[in-house]
Amino acid sequence: MSHKKLFVPGPTEVREEILKAQAKWMIGHRSKEFGDLNQRCVEKTQQILKTKNYVFWWTASGTGLMEGAIRNVVQKKVLHCINGAFSDRWFKISQACGKEPEPLRVEWGRTIKPEMVDQALSRDSYEAITFTQNETSTGVRTPLEEIVPLVRSKYPDVLILVDAVSSLMGDWFDIDALGLDVVVASSQKCVALPPGLAVAIVSARAMEKCRKVPDRGYYFDYDAMLKRYEKDHQTPTTPAISLFWALEAQLDAILAEGMQNRYRRHLEMAQFTREWAKKYFALFPEPGYESVTLTTVTNTRSISVKDLNSALGERGMQISNGYGDLKEKTFRIAHMGDLTMQDMQEVTRAIVEILKL
Ligand SMILES: Cc1ncc(COP(=O)(O)O)c(C=O)c1O
């Protein structure tokens, strides 16, 4: 089978040794061996993220855990900060779960700012607020470091829920120092695993809140997950065991690299790709709020992104077209997971050659 190196914002490139780590003899999920494997994955994740919060690895995609967060900690009112397709998805999930969600919308490409959040939170009483740390549809980063301290000091009872699906273990933000209540992410982005696992990092106060929420559903119930973990480190339902083998191998690799080095590598790739984009095209995101894990480029030359991607495919590489309405108006080059500066040099050089820039 031919191999295209993935510069798309998920699924990202998975190294061969990680793919091979999945190919072990199957074990029972009620075995001590699986409980031990799960426990090691939980503890290594806490170590990488420097968090004392609960860590739950679920067999699901990130959207499942976005829904799980809403079902576990929101009874009625939740404020959703929306600046793209994925932040809007959280609002839609709350609607679908019968909650009373309120949107705080800004134009796609722009970021959410502290004063906007302050104004919106002052208007009503909310149980929780949601942020998308890295809006993958636009390549915009939300400055949690500026917003969250304000929320924690002025609105201390509001739970803070963060979608870090396309940034966790690539970009860096301090979960415990900021006091984030729920952070969710998928395996197929910066963790650089195949799709199929997702992680929820849950604070003690979110855990307490969940116990008071009736009808919080079955599959993503935090309390049931914790009870089973405390009993024998297993999961309430059958996990994707093969992916857990790969997860442990990848967590070991991330520990060996060091999370701060991993973050710096992502930042360097981002800075390189942004400079390249500014030279030949333009950057789409609001200046100063560009994603660390993907670069969204405005198609100022009206090239056919579809044709460019086909030509890249012939060279064994793939980037992403713009998302939704931004298709052909923008294109996205991801620098996530285990990609390196050399990879970014290769893909950008190939684009220059193909387009004869
Ligand atoms: C920011 C963000 N949130 C949520 C999702 C949905 O995650 P999943 O596809 O794992 O359900 C994505 C997927 O691209 C994403 O980029």
Task: Report on this structure.
- The structure is a single chain.
- The protein is of the alpha/beta class and 357 residues long.
- It folds into two domains: 5-11 and 258-355, Aspartate Aminotransferase, domain 1 (Alpha-Beta Complex); 17-256, Aspartate Aminotransferase, domain 2 (3-Layer(aba) Sandwich).
- Helices cover 44% and strands 17% of the residues.
- It contains 13 helices and 15 strands.
- It has helices at residues 16-21, 32-49, 62-73, 85-96, 114-122, 144-154, 175-178, 204-212, 222-232, 241-257, 259-280, 305-314, 341-355; strands spanning 5-6, 54-59, 77-82, 100-105, 128-132, 134-135, 140-141, 159-163, 182-186, 197-202, 282-283, 294-298, 317-318, 320-321, 330-334.
- The strands form four sheets. It has a seven-stranded mixed β-sheet, sandwiched between helices. A four-stranded antiparallel β-sheet has the order 11-12-15-14, with helices on one face. The protein has a two-stranded parallel sheet with strand order 1-13.
- Helix 3 packs across helix 4 (85-96) and helix 5 packs parallel to helix 6 (144-154).
- The site of pyridoxal-5'-phosphate (PLP) has 12 residues, from helix 3.
